[in-house]
Each structure stands twice: as structure tokens, then as C-alpha cells.
Specification:
Layout (H helix, E strand, L loop, with lengths): L26 H15 L3 H22 L3 H8 L1 H5 L16 E4 L5 E5 L6 E2 L4 H10 L11 H10 L11 H12 L10 H9 L10 H17 L2 H11 L6 E2 L1 H9 L8 H8 L14 H17 L5 H9 L15 H15 L1 H6 L3 E4 L3 H17 L7 E7 L6 E5 L19 E2 L6 H11 L7 E4 L4 E3 L3 E3 L10 E4 H6 L3 H11 L1 H11 L9 H4 L10 E2 H12 L10 E6 L3 E5 L15 H11 L2 H8 L16 E6 L5 E7 L4 E7 L15 H14 L1 H6 L18 E7 L12 E7 L13 H11 L7 H14 L61
Parallel strand pairs: 1-5, 3-4
Antiparallel strand pairs: 1-2, 5-14, 6-7, 6-18, 8-13, 9-12, 10-11, 14-15, 16-17, 17-18, 19-20
């Protein structure tokens, strides 16, 4: 498969070392060349002649072995001793490794994964190389020839295409020099070098005639087994080019940031000269020596008729700027590390670090960079309030694709432990957890957005703990208030009443179903009521995933960082089926209940009581596009949250301090919500980023939240949220077709009466609006002996009844658990953990 997203590196460091014509001084190279010439002039031929008979004898034996007289030579050399342990050409000793590459969704390279003990390697086939060359024929800026093939043959083995795997004349030349006390190179063909690389234990590297002959035998066997193209590509894919680059494609990317098929003649001739002595000719450190070696390769290409002298001179004059590959690809480091952990868990470390996987992730690098900039800028602005860190995660709710993950304000800032990924850390979510509590109440207690709850200075006496007296963020209380306003304005007492009714285990079960898989792992008794105010701990990633489930109308799609994985040989071992992901997702909570939460969280008028109409949770820049969001603030403002979604993206943000110390004067709406707002606007307004938010069919997802068919509008009593009676003021509210309200306007359960009387008797912090609402409720249900207490038939605890819809004004015949719509006794409050619970803010 073609890989995309690489851009040619512009001239970088080292550019100042060139002279006027683009060349660099070659004084060092001149010295090396002069020394070699003098060495050749010093060869004592008379001394060599004294040994030439022995050399010729051994050479003739080898030539005989290579030719037709194999049997005689084998007997002389001891065939069984030489070949007994030689392996089959089909099995290689050297464990081939390849570099795993992590890409964004648009094939932009994010990172390369290497085994620290090895380096980079990407195998390419001869067909792949030539296919790309053919595709470049009409591009004047790309080479029209695979220069690396000609350059390598010129540098290493000029008879490669015709020799049988060994070159007798080169062996003779080597023997003459070795016997004369000198050393030389060139005795090994490309095939001989290859078998040394592939059989390091069997062939070895010692300088003995026995090793040389065994190497020759294996080279001949290789030539008989494989085509010349296959042998050449095996060599090019395994030879070491220095700087931890194994193979030509890794070398091309290491030094010139391009693929092997994109190498110019100048670049190819420089790289072809490196395998002889990679550290000596390292162009990033010894550029003059590398240029001298390049000149040698170009001259050999001219001698062999591969290029003209003019082409060689032009290539030598071409300015080159080789750079080290170390640390070059380090984009989205938190996300890349997250992906590596994900891959290791699924495929094992060996596949990740040596398997040569091409991993196309879900990340949009442009969205990631926008998120990084926004988080860093806003955290700097919040520094006067003792904020030093922030995190963001964004995903497509319908597919779980993570398009951005910012684990800290600065990955490279050690003062904030920047490499730590806060998106996966468990922290207290504050009121951002409340939607899960109310969703549980919709399912288990028969509540709906119009259910009236009582907000007053309530005190719980907890066995083993004592008095528990939570407060609202403003210190005010609002009396009889609907669930819609209680959740939208993040009031604490109503949320505690909700968890008191449904119980902690049910709420934890709901959280786990929605996607909080690692959070809330302790026994429910550890948390107690304060869990609904953020007393437990969850990760930003999983809480965002839970909100995505709500956005999907109750369908759980787990977060996913991978679009596809391609193994060597273009073998696709995984691909996300984007078209069927949501369709096949499990329905973990009834769609109607999830939609009711979305409707509340997107109701800006409902939250105006505390937050006002002009708050960061609305998007006027996007024509007030529907958006559902909730903030959260943990105890002492240590953790500041905002999580919210449109129909096409869900975004979670955390702001705080790495050392878990309190911030000063902030809450979720004044900190994390700013980052959330900025990113939401950016990702929708930017045309390129908006493409990432398209649906599986490539079309924009409708902006309106999809209302399930089981949702109906009902007229209810304004004072009590019950079924209206003649003459009372009514309001319109949403409910499930077969769900609440159950009682009539002038009816009340024992639980409701108890809470009403307690609220009327607790003036502390009660607002004028609160008193008015309590009095209206009391007047509607009567006072003294005129209060009518009805025992309604409860609704199913699962909330999944298939019974016919009830008409307005007709009490449901179905059972219901204890709730504000029931006269059954209120449940015993669960115990709190052995430490003061959170007093969370909005």
C-alpha cells in the first residue's frame, strides 16, 4: 500500500557547511585517497610473488569448486566439515525486524517505533519500488529511475547481474593482497554480504579461508534459490546504513526524509557508499568523507555506463542536507504512547517493536495541534488562579474514534510532569458525574425531567460518620425545583436525593454500562451518597466515553484509537468498520432515557438560573448549534471539568494542578469550559477539521439531536410536575411515552410530603423563589387534614415496559419503586466512606 503524508524536509541544519557551488570541503577525503594510492604504490610485488603459488593453488581449488569439478574440490576441502551445519536458504538465522509506524487518519507520520536494541527498518519489494518509479514518470520533480539499484551495484558488486553469487577474480585479488600483508575490500559480492547478514552465527565474521568458502557455498545456494531481484532487495532491506537505519527505505527517511523511490541520483549515490563503513562515512558527522565516497560511487557508475560524466558531476554538485532521524517524528506524543500501550495489550511487544506494522490511527493531526494550542494558551491565562495543567480528549460518538488527545499542557515540561497523560488518570469529576445519577433515576425510580425535587439545607446523619451537610456552590437553595433545572444548574441537594432513591450500586452499574470501565472499582459502600457529587474517581477518557454513549441515545461504542493496521506484505490485520459500528453497538440504556439527559444538558434556558444565558456552554459562533454539556468542580477546586457534545463530536476537558493542590477562585464553567468552547468552535468552523466530523457515508451528521419515537410532550402541573387537574397552570415537558408522571397534581407520596415539610422548616439559604415554589407546592397538595396521600401502582424498575401508553390524567397501573411519585417508604440512605465527602460545585 502506498503511504502518504510525508513532506520533503526543507534544508535544515548543516547547511552552512557548504561552499559556493553546494559542495563541502573535501580535504579529509583527499588525505584518505592519497593514503590509499600510496598504499598501492608500496605493494612489494617480489614479496607477493613468494606467496603467489599458494594463492593460485587455493584460488584454483575454489574456481574448480565453483565450476564443474565440484566433487574433486569438495574432497580436497573436506566437504562434510564445511557444509554439515549450513542452513537451508529458506530459513534465516537473523531475526528480521521492521519499524512500526504510527500515522494519523490522513497518513501523516506521527511516530516510528523501534526496538532500542536495533533501529529502523522498513522492507520494500522490488515490485513496490518499481511501481512507485513508474507512477513518478509524469512528475518532473520526482526521479524516473531507481537510482539506488545502479548506485549499489556500482559500489558493491559490478558483476551482480551475471555472477553465480561469488566473483572469482575479486577473490583472487583479495587473496593476493591478504597474502602480501595488505588488506583490501571488494572480495565479497552482494550475495555474500547478504548471507553474512542473514546467518551471523553459522557463517560468522572471522577472517579465515574456511569462513570465506562456507560463505561462498551459501552465496551460490542463494543464487540458485532466489532471483537476482529478490537477492538485491533482501540486501537493500537488511544492510546497515548507520544512524540505526537498516535497509534503504529506512536510510532514505533517516537522512533525507523521503522514501527510497524518491531518492535523486545525488542522494542515492551518497547512501550507496555508506554500507562499506557507516560510521566513517556518516554524512551527519563526516560530511567530507561521505562526499568523497559519493564521488567514488559516481565514478564507478560512469565507468559501468550507467550515467554520463555530466550527470555524475551534476549529482556531485547537488547540495545535500542529511540529518539525523532521532526524535524527528514525535507528534502527538501522549496519543502515540497511548496507542503503543493499546497495541501491546492486543498484539504483544514483539509485534509492536519489531513487526513493521503500519498503524493508521483515528487521530486528526490538525485537530490535535489545535487542541494542544488551545489547552496551552488557556492554561497560561489561568496561571494566576494557580492552574498549571490541562487535558483534552475528543472523539466521534458514533464510532468511538479519538480525534484529539492532549495529555498535558506541555509534554516536555518536567515541572508539571508533562509526559504523564492526564486523560487516562483517575480524578474526582465533581458535578460532571451527575448526569449518570439522574439517568439512573429515570431508569430505576420513574423520574423524568419534570419531577419535582426539594432543594434545601438538608442534613444527613450518617452512622459512623456523623452529620453530613452539603451545600450548593452559591450557598443558596431553590425549594421545589424540577429535575431539569436541578441538573442543568448543578444543584447538589437534589442530586443527593436522587442517589438516595436509586442507591449507589445502581448508579455505579449505570456508569460501568455507559463506558466507565476502570473507575468506581471499589465496593459501593466505600463511596456512599457523595459519589453523585464527584466523591469517586474516573478518568477523563472514560467519562467522555460515557457522555458519548448518552449522545448515541444509549448505545455504547468504546473509544477506539485505530482505523486500520497493515502488517508487512500489505496484510491488513484490522480495519474499523465505520459504517456498522453504531448499528452493531449494544443498547446499554433505553434510548428515551438517554435522550432526556441530552435534552436537559442542551437546555440553555434551564441553566440560566445559575450560569446565565451568556455562558461558554453555548455556541453562538456556530449559529447556536444544539450542544449538550456539563461542568464539574471537585472539592477545593482541585479538578475542573467540562464534558459535552454535539451530534458529531464529544469533547472532555480537565483543568487543574499536577500536584493535586487546590486552584483559586475557579470552577468548571470559568476554566475548563473555556477550553471546551474554543475547541468546539475550532473543530466545526475549520473546513478541513470539519471533514473529520462527517458521518460514515461522508455526509454531515444532522445538527439536531435525534429524538426517539418513544418521547412525547406532556402537559403537567407547573407547581408539582404531576398530571394536571382542572384550573391549574400547566407547562409542557418531555417524558417517555409509557412513563411518568403518574400522580395527579394534588397528590403526593409520603416521601414527597416528608421532604416538603423538611424544606418548609429549613429557611437557611432559601431564596425568595425557593419559598414561593414550596408554598405553591404545599397549597396544591393541601395542608393539614386536607392533604391527600395516594398509593399509586408502581412502575417496572427496569423502565422497559411494553404496556400500552397511558392517556394524560390516567394514573398508570404499573408498579413503581420508591420515588417522589410513590408513597412507598423511602430507602435507607447508604453509608458514606470513612472520610468527609466531596462538596462539589457546578
Amino acid at each position: 500500500m502506498a503511504r502518504h503524508g510525508h513532506k520533503k524536509r526543507t534544508p535544515g541544519r548543516g547547511g552552512g557547511r557548504t561552499n559556493g557551488n553546494g559542495r563541502r570541503p573535501a580535504n579529509g577525503a583527499a588525505v584518505i585517497i592519497a593514503r590509499r594510492r600510496r598504499a598501492r604504490q608500496r605493494h612489494p610485488m617480489t614479496h607477493a610473488l613468494l606467496r603467489i603459488s599458494a594463492a593460485l593453488g587455493l584460488t584454483l581449488a575454489l574456481l574448480t569448486f565453483v565450476g564443474a569439478g565440484v566433487a574433486a574440490a569438495a574432497g580436497y576441502l573436506g566437504w562434510s566439515a564445511l557444509t554439515a551445519d549450513l542452513p537451508s536458504p529458506d530459513r534465516f538465522e537473523a531475526l528480521e525486524f521492521q519499524t512500526t509506524k504510527i500515522y494519523d487518519r490522513n497518513w501523516v507520520l506521527l511516530s516510528e517505533v523501534t526496538d532500542p536494541a536495533t533501529g529502523w527498518r522498513t522492507a520494500i519489494s522490488y515490485e513496490e519500488l518499481m511501481d512507485h518509479i513508474r507512477q513518478q514518470q509524469n512528475d518532473p520533480n520526482k526521479p524516473h529511475r531507481a537510482w539506488i539499484i545502479d548506485a549499489t551495484i556500482a559500489a558493491e558488486d559490478q558483476t551482480f547481474w551475471t555472477n553465480p553469487g561469488v566473483e572469482p577474480r575479486a577473490i583472487l585479488r583479495s587473496l593476493v593482497f591478504n597474502l602480501s600483508g595488505e588488506s583490501t575490500s571488494g572480495a565479497s559480492t552482494i550475495t555474500q554480504q547478504l548471507v553474512r547478514m542473514l546467518y551471523p552465527e553459522t557463517i560468522g565474521t572471522e577472517r579465515t579461508y574456511r569462513r570465506k568458502i562456507r560463505e561462498a557455498i551459501m552465496a551460490i545456494r542463494f543464487t540458485q534459490r532466489y532471483s537476482k531481484q529478490e537477492i538485491l532487495m533482501m540486501y537493500l532491506n537488511n544492510v546497515y546504513y548507520g544512524n540505526r537505519a537498516y535497509g534503504i527505505d529506512a536510510a532514505a527517511q533517516a537522512y533525507f526524509n523521503k522514501f527510497a523511490w524518491e531518492l535523486t541520483l545525488a542522494e542515492a549515490s551518497m547512501l550507496a557508499g555508506l554500507p562499506q563503513a557507516p560510521s566513517v562515512y556518516d554524512p551527519t558527522k563526516n560530511f567530507e568523507l561521505a562526499k568523497a565516497r559519493q564521488r567514488y560511487v559516481l565514478d564507478r557508475m560512469v565507468e559501468l555506463g550507467m550515467i554520463t560524466r555530466a550527470e555524475a558531476d551534476e549529482a556531485f554538485a547537488e547540495p545535500l542536507y542529511p540529518q539525523s532521524r532521532e526524535g524527528r517524528y514525535n507528534k502527538a506524543p501522549h496519543f502515540v504512547n497511548f496507542v503503543l500501550d493499546y497495541l501491546e495489550t492486543k498484539y504483544g511487544p514483539a509485534a509492536v517493536y519489531r513487526g513493521g506494522l503500519m498503524v493508521r490511527t483515528t487521530l486528526d493531526l490538525s485537530a490535535q495541534q489545535a487542541a494542544e494550542e488551545i489547552v496551552k494558551r488557556r492554561v497560561q491565562q489561568l496561571a494566576p488562579y494557580r492552574v498549571d495543567n490541562g487535558a483534552l480528549v475528543a472523539m466521534l460518538p458514533w464510532s468511538g474514534e479519538i480525534i484529539a488527545m492532549v495529555g498535558s499542557a506541555d509534554f516536555y515540561d518536567d515541572t508539571i510532569d508533562g509526559q504523564f497523560n492526564v486523560t487516562t488518570a483517575e480524578r474526582q469529576p465533581g458535578s460532571a458525574i451527575k448526569p449518570i445519577t439522574y439517568l439512573t433515576a429515570f431508569e430505576k425510580a420513574g423520574w423524568y425531567p419534570g419531577t419535582i425535587v426539594f432543594d434545601y439545607a438538608k442534613v444527613w446523619n450518617i452512622p459512623g460518620f456523623g452529620r453530613y451537610e452539603p451545600k450548593n456552590a452559591t450557598g443558596q437553595h431553590f425549594g421545589a425545583i424540577t429535575v431539569r433545572e436541578a441538573l442543568a444548574n448543578s444543584l447538589n441537594i437534589p442530586a443527593l436525593q436522587a442517589i438516595e432513591v436509586v442507591g449507589v450500586p445502581a448508579m455505579i452499574d449505570m456508569a460501568h454500562r455507559l463506558g466507565i470501565k476502570t473507575g468506581f472499582w471499589r465496593d459501593p459502600s466505600y463511596y456512599g451518597l457523595s459519589i453523585t457529587l464527584g466523591g469517586g474517581e474516573v478518568s477523563l477518557l472514560e467519562l467522555t466515553n460515557a457522555y458519548a454513549t448518552i449522545a448515541n441515545n444509549g448505545k455504547y461504542v468504546p473509544y477506539n484509537p485505530i482505523l486500520e493496521i497493515i502488517a508487512p506484505g500489505n496484510n491488513r490485520i484490522y480495519q474499523l468498520d465505520r459504517a456498522k459500528t453504531l448499528e452493531q453497538a449494544p443498547q446499554v440504556v433505553r434510548a428515551e432515557y438517554a435522550y432526556l439527559i441530552t435534552h436537559i444538558l442542551s437546555d440553555n434556558k434551564a441553566r440560566a438560573l445559575i450560569f446565565g444565558l451568556n455562558n461558554p456552554l453555548v455556541l453562538p459562533e456556530l449559529d447556536n448549534r444544539p450542544v449538550a454539556a456539563k461542568t464539574g468542580t471537585s472539592e477545593d477546586a482541585r479538578d475542573l471539568w467540562t464534558v459535552g457534545y454535539t451530534t458529531d463530536v464529544v469533547v472532555g476537558v480537565w483543568v487543574g494542578r499536577t500536584d493535586n493542590q487546590p486552584t483559586r477562585g475557579l470552577d468548571g464553567i470559568s476554566s475548563a469550559a473555556l477550553i471546551w468552547h474554543d475547541f468546539m468552535v475550532k473543530v466545526h468552523q475549520d473546513p478541513q477539521l470539519a471533514k473529520t466530523l462527517l458521518g460514515p457515508d461522508g455526509q454531515p451528521i444532522p445538527v439536531e439531536f435525534q429524538r426517539p419515537p418513544g418521547i412525547v410532550e406532556v402537559q403537567v402541573c407547573a407547581a408539582t410536575g404531576k398530571l394536571p387537574i382542572r384550573g391549574v397552570r400547566t407547562v409542557t415537558e418531555l417524558s417517555v411515552r409509557d412513563g411518568p408522571p403518574r400522580l395527579r397534581c394534588n397528590q403526593a407520596s409520603e416521601y414527597e410530603l416528608r421532604e416538603l415539610r423538611a424544606a418548609l422548616a429549613t429557611p437557611k439559604g432559601m431564596t425568595g423563589r425557593g419559598w414561593s415554589s414550596l408554598q405553591a407546592y404545599a397549597a396544591m397538595v393541601g395542608v393539614g387534614p386536607r392533604i391527600e396521600i395516594r398509593q399509586p401502582t408502581p412502575t417496572p424498575v427496569t423502565g422497559e415496559s411494553n404496556s400500552p401508553a397511558e392517556g394524560p390524567g390516567t394514573p398508570s397501573p404499573q408498579p413503581t419503586p420508591p420515588s417522589p411519585g410513590s408513597s412507598s417508604p423511602a430507602p435507607t440512605p447508604p453509608a458514606l466512606p470513612g472520610e468527609p465527602p466531596s462538596s462539589a460545585n457546578p
